[in-house]
From TrEMBL:
<dbReference type="Pfam" id="PF01370">
    <property type="entry name" value="Epimerase"/>
</dbReference>
<protein>
    <recommendedName>
        <fullName>GDP-L-fucose synthase</fullName>
        <ecNumber>1.1.1.271</ecNumber>
    </recommendedName>
</protein>
<feature type="binding site">
    <location>
        <begin position="163"/>
        <end position="166"/>
    </location>
    <ligand>
        <name>NADP(+)</name>
    </ligand>
</feature>
<dbReference type="GO" id="GO:0016853">
    <property type="term" value="F:isomerase activity"/>
</dbReference>
<feature type="binding site">
    <location>
        <position position="140"/>
    </location>
    <ligand>
        <name>NADP(+)</name>
    </ligand>
</feature>
<dbReference type="GO" id="GO:0042351">
    <property type="term" value="P:'de novo' GDP-L-fucose biosynthetic process"/>
</dbReference>
<keyword id="KW-0511">Multifunctional enzyme</keyword>
<dbReference type="InterPro" id="IPR001509">
    <property type="entry name" value="Epimerase_deHydtase"/>
</dbReference>
<feature type="site" description="Important for catalytic activity">
    <location>
        <position position="109"/>
    </location>
</feature>
<feature type="binding site">
    <location>
        <position position="187"/>
    </location>
    <ligand>
        <name>substrate</name>
    </ligand>
</feature>
<dbReference type="InterPro" id="IPR036291">
    <property type="entry name" value="NAD(P)-bd_dom_sf"/>
</dbReference>
<comment type="pathway">
    <text>Nucleotide-sugar biosynthesis; GDP-L-fucose biosynthesis via de novo pathway; GDP-L-fucose from GDP-alpha-D-mannose: step 2/2.</text>
</comment>
<feature type="active site" description="Proton donor/acceptor">
    <location>
        <position position="136"/>
    </location>
</feature>
<feature type="binding site">
    <location>
        <position position="209"/>
    </location>
    <ligand>
        <name>substrate</name>
    </ligand>
</feature>
<feature type="binding site">
    <location>
        <position position="202"/>
    </location>
    <ligand>
        <name>substrate</name>
    </ligand>
</feature>
<dbReference type="InterPro" id="IPR028614">
    <property type="entry name" value="GDP_fucose/colitose_synth"/>
</dbReference>
<feature type="binding site">
    <location>
        <position position="179"/>
    </location>
    <ligand>
        <name>NADP(+)</name>
    </ligand>
</feature>
Length: 322
């Protein structure tokens, strides 16, 4: 049996590690994994040399600089520069080395701030972006267009998936630079440990968000990557190379905070700091295309949050200040 070699860029991150877990369960897959110390994806020369030497059969491009509202607001240059460099280097080097198939992972923030809900793939580039993460979003849009352009010009089979808000094991639980679920899990956990009476949550609690467990995301990645080219192209016409990945359901931040409080066992009061930004009023993806391709999410939010909290406790992240 032919061993298929697969390079997972960003295999130590939340999404990359979940993709690795999925691929490890499959026969005939030889994983190519490189740490940041082994391979600097922002270095054109290093990436070119790696691709030329290894010539993988498939590439999952899960490497990215990511963060929440605070991080995006504080480090906009880092977010646009590093993400542009990573995707441009990996996608071009893959093409130059004759890599037949690649999967690029974007983000739902590629869609306009006031896009019609739920957001369909066709909403891309139809209006202004959410200002707080516009540099990151533009880098991700560039990645989609890189894949689309190489497919058009060179006939490559480079695909893009746009996940909704992801959470799960190996998430970033940094107190300032994390996304909403890890930030709240940590905050509620620490409040419980310290016996605090109240937890304050950023914003009004009104915005609605969709959340997808990273193991579901990884399963969707492998499912889409294994589709025949003709099937993928049929579902991404006309001129679309990306497909949304989500659950198709959302909840308000206040509802999320209540579920997290229950998950952690925090019995105090939840308040909302309305001086902090809300971000987009609603972000829900239309997952019609993905469902038509034979995949849908299977991990309910409460189950996924419990799994993530167990991981947090096992790894002592909150105690270490990571």
């Amino acid at each position: 049996m032919h061993q298929k070699t697969v390079f997972v860029a960003g295999h130590r991150g939340m999404v990359g590690s979940a993709i690795v877990r999925q691929l490890e369960e499959r026969d005939g897959v030889q994983l190519l994994l490189r740490t940041r110390a082994d391979l600097d994806l922002t270095s054109q020369a290093e990436v070119r040399e790696f691709m030329t030497e290894t010539r993988p059969d498939e590439v999952y491009l899960a490497a990215a600089k990511v963060g929440g509202i605070h991080a995006n607001n504080t480090f906009p240059a880092d977010f646009i520069h590093q993400n542009l460099m990573i995707e441009a280097n990996v996608i071009h080097a893959a093409y130059a080395a004759g890599v037949p198939r690649l999967l690029f992972l974007g983000s739902s923030c590629i869609y306009p701030k006031l896009a019609e809900q739920p957001m369909r793939e066709e909403a891309l580039l139809t209006g202004p972006l959410e200002p707080t993460n516009e540099p990151y979003a533009i880098a991700k849009i560039a990645g989609i267009k890189l894949c689309e352009s190489y497919n058009r010009q060179y006939g490559t089979d480079y695909r893009s998936l746009m996940p909704t808000n992801l959470y799960g094991p190996n998430d970033n639980f940094h107190p300032q630079n994390s996304h909403v679920i890890p930030a709240l899990l940590r905050r509620f956990h620490e409040a419980k440990v310290r016996g605090e009476a109240e937890v304050s949550v950023w914003g009004t609690g009104g915005p609605r968000r969709e959340f997808l467990h990273v193991d579901d995301m990884a399963a969707a990645c492998v499912h889409v990557m294994e589709l025949p080219k003709a099937v993928y192209e049929e579902h991404t016409q006309p001129m679309l190379t990306h497909i949304n990945v989500g659950t198709g359901t959302d909840c308000s931040i206040s509802e999320l905070a209540a579920v997290i409080a229950r998950t952690v066992g925090f019995e105090g009061r939840i308040s909302f700091d309305t001086s902090k930004p809300d971000g987009a009023p609603r972000k829900l993806l239309d997952v019609t295309r993905l469902n038509a391709l034979g995949w849908q999410a299977s991990i309910p939010l409460e189950e996924g949050l419990a799994d993530t909290y167990r991981w947090l406790l096992q790894h002592g992240v909150a105690e270490e200040g990571n």
